[in-house]
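Bumping my old thread because nobody answered last time. Still need a sequence for this structure:
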């Protein structure tokens, strides 16, 4: 066994390295691969080879070590994974192994941070290239040992952009540009000729950021509020009650990403701004994946009240905090007590031993906020509370329970994952209310899309596509409308939406994510029995119950398969993204398993279309990966033919044509069933009024005659006569 830490060879069966005592894996982990949309960053020092010629080797090593260490730190600070260093070049991935909603933005900001450090502190120059696209990711590799994580054209393109970038310049591709143009300022750059590509790669040069990270510059209120009037009223009435009664209220807005939680909170802010009474508004946001320190959102609230900036020196921040506390808390001893407990919240040393009494800290923080609310009504907004650590959740709960004698409205926004973690959140409190935001109706979504596109009338097909893709989600509707306004196809998936859905999937435990991926192969609707046939290792009922609580799926009350428990994806885009993550060879095998489960139900003619879809998909995917397709071909042909026959019998000639066209390509020319198949295809074309029907009937007639099928040939002649007559 090779030690992953020091490279020392060890005898088989050893549990710890003989050289460094690091634990050794007993066996290689199961290889896990996924297709992911990632952002790839390549960075290289400029002129390092010439510089090295003039330097002592030890100085060169010291320079590169400092460069590697700082670049790694900046990239990882922004959520990147450093895959490898090659001399003075570095490659990093944003979105693997775990996706975040804003990976392209993080990559660009990381590039700017590296460039700033290189120019101001290291006195070196860099070139950086960034691309976004789909790659195959090996999830359990160890980049620190030089194991490659990602493969795909997007990696090569990033390297080409890096090589073409100007000195101290950052070039990005079109996909990265589209995903970040609202937060990053760009200048057009000359297209980059890339080896192996037919066309030059469109490129943009990064100029500067448009805003501080985490600030939404999309102007929340520029789109009309549709279908959320009741929720807005609940919030404004809660504020009125707080003012009237002088007691705290907790309102939690729960919903999936993009459903409108932040918009409703913004509507409350606008209501306050338009009122005559002064109200203090403070808000903080919990960062994902543990990127912030504990109580990050509370820290943002305290910093805003004290006027502490991220660029303040420690002494200046401490002075501002002291001034803010003593302005609110008159008693000298109380003020010192409150300040001492607030210092760690804003990133200052507390001056006392760590690990103190949490109850005392909660009381001190509450005292500070009560003093603030005593001046005038106070609204505290805790955004993205599903990302918060348990300690912050406990404090918000404590604040709602124990604050008294002040007008305090606490507004929390969270995804359903919060209620999966804390099912009793807000329960049992007379002053707490949880609002679950449902998708917009088709009528409201259509109103929103019409307003976004500034059109009174939409093509019926486009309107239906937009409604289906948005699925009642206002943010998705906005992004799809933006897509259409830019001249792109509504069937595409906007980079922003892809990022949101992928990030939410990557937050799930592996077992829950695997359930969704397996279900995505079945379709928008799936059954418990199908999932069990695909992976017997998974404890499905509990996993599905949890996914239902997190609003990924819903259980259907009237299953379409007798004796089966039926589920459906709540949003088709979750299904699409989960399906797209599965490597093609694995997808082919899963389609085969689903088809075999459908066959096990009996009466295959009732499920002909489903059988055809899964067998034909398995065949296509297996062929694309170069795998042996012999085990798929015959069943795929038969299923496709049966599906065509069923569609034709049900007077759906267009569907029949689609199935027949596919299986004719697969049918052997010397097979006895081919003449009948060609005749069925010709009949479907004739029924549909397709212009190809005459030629297809003539071909079918000739083949039937050659096969000795005189009766069928006569039917073909009769249909031809009807065509000629009419």
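Sorry it took so long. Here it is:
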């Amino acid at each position: 066994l090779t030690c992953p830490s020091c490279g020392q060879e060890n005898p088989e069966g050893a549990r710890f390295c003989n050289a460094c005592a690091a634990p050794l894996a007993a066996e290689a982990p199961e290889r896990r691969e996924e297709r992911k949309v990632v952002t790839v960053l390549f960075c290289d020092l400029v002129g390092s080879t010439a510089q090295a010629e003039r330097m002592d080797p030890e100085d060169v090593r010291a320079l590169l070590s400092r460069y590697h260490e700082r670049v790694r730190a900046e990239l990882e600070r922004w959520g990147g994974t450093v895959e490898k260093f090659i001399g003075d070049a570095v490659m990093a991935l944003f979105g693997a192994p775990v996706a975040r909603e804003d990976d392209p933005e993080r990559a660009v900001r990381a590039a700017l941070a590296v460039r700033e450090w290189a120019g101001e502190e290291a006195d070196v120059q860099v070139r950086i290239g960034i691309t976004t696209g789909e790659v195959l990711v090996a999830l359990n590799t160890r980049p620190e040992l030089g194991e490659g994580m990602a493969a795909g054209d997007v990696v090569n393109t990033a390297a080409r952009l890096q090589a073409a970038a100007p000195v101290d310049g950052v070039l990005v591709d079109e996909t990265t540009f589209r995903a970040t143009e609202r937060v990053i300022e760009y200048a057009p750059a000359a297209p980059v000729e890339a080896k192996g590509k037919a066309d030059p790669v469109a490129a943009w040069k990064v100029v500067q950021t448009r805003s501080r990270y985490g600030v939404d510059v999309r102007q929340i209120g520029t789109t009309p509020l549709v279908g959320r009037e009741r929720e807005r009223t609940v919030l404004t009435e809660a504020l009125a009650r707080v003012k009237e009664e002088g007691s705290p209220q907790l309102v939690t807005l729960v919903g999936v990403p993009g459903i409108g939680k932040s918009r409703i909170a913004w509507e409350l802010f606008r209501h306050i701004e338009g009122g005559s009474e002064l109200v203090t508004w403070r808000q903080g946001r919990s960062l994902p994946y543990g990127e912030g320190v504990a109580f990050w959102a509370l820290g943002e609230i305290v910093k805003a009240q004290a006027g502490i900036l991220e660029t303040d020196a420690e002494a200046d921040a401490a002075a501002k905090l002291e001034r803010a506390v003593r302005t609110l808390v008159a008693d000298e001893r109380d003020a010192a007590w409150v300040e001492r407990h607030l210092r760690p919240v804003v990133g200052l040393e507390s001056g006392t031993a760590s690990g103190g009494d949490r109850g005392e800290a909660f009381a001190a923080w509450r005292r500070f906020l009560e003093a603030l609310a005593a001046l005038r009504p106070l609204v505290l907004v805790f955004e993205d509370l599903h990302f918060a650590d348990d300690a912050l959740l406990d404090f918000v709960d404590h604040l709602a329970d124990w604050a008294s004698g002040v007008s305090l409205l606490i507004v929390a926004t969270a995804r359903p994952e919060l209620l999966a973690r804390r099912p009793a959140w807000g329960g049992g409190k007379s002053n707490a209310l949880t609002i679950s935001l449902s998708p917009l109706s088709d009528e409201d979504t259509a109103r929103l899309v019409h307003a976004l596109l500034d059109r009174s009338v939409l093509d019926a097909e486009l309107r239906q596509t937009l409604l289906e893709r948005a699925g009642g989600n206002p943010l998705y509707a906005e992004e799809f409308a933006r897509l259409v306004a830019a001249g792109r196809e509504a069937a595409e998936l906007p980079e922003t939406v892809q990022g949101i859905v992928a990030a939410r999937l990557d937050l799930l435990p592996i077992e829950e994510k695997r359930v969704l991926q397996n279900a995505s192969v079945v379709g928008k609707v799936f059954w418990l029995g199908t999932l069990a046939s695909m992976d017997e290792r998974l404890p499905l009922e509990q996993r599905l119950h949890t996914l239902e609580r997190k609003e990924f799926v819903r259980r259907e009350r009237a299953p379409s398969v007798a004796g089966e428990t039926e589920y459906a994806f709540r949003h088709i885009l979750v299904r699409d993204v989960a399906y797209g993550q599965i490597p093609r060879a694995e997808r082919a095998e899963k389609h085969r398993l689903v088809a075999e489960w459908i066959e096990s139900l009996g009466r295959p003619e009732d499920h002909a279309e489903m059988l055809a879809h899964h067998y034909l998909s398995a065949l296509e995917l297996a062929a694309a990966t170069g795998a042996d397709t012999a085990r798929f071909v015959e069943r795929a042909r038969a299923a496709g033919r049966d599906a065509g026959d069923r569609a034709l019998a049900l007077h759906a000639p267009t569907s029949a044509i689609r199935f027949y066209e596919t299986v004719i390509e697969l049918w052997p020319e010397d097979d006895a069933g081919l003449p009948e198949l060609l005749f069925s295809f010709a009949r479907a074309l004739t029924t549909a009024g397709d212009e190809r029907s005459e030629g297809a009937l003539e071909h079918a007639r000739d083949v039937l005659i050659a096969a000795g099928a005189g009766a069928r040939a006569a039917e073909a002649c009769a249909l031809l006569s009807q065509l000629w007559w009419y």
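The domain at 33-209 is CATH 3.30.70.1230 (Alpha-Beta Plaits). Let me know if any region looks off to you.
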